[in-house]
Amino acid sequence: xxxxxxxxxxxxxxxxxxxxxxxxxxxxxxxxxxxxxxxxxxxxxxxxxxxxxxxxxxxxxxxxxxxxxxx
Length: 71
What we know:
Elements: H1 2-26, H2 29-32, H3 35-70
Helix pairs in contact: 1-3
């Protein structure tokens, strides 16, 4: 169970880094002038944030289960 928590934490870290990268791309001057590219990046950002929310929820659930097992 602890291994699962660690895996989710690693995935969350990767997802957070991806969000930062996308946000950075969205402020890049090349992309600011390209509405199609901005739209694509925005969609990718929304999808990644959704993934982050799902991982966070999973992490909370698994952490609670682990805590219950330890008590």
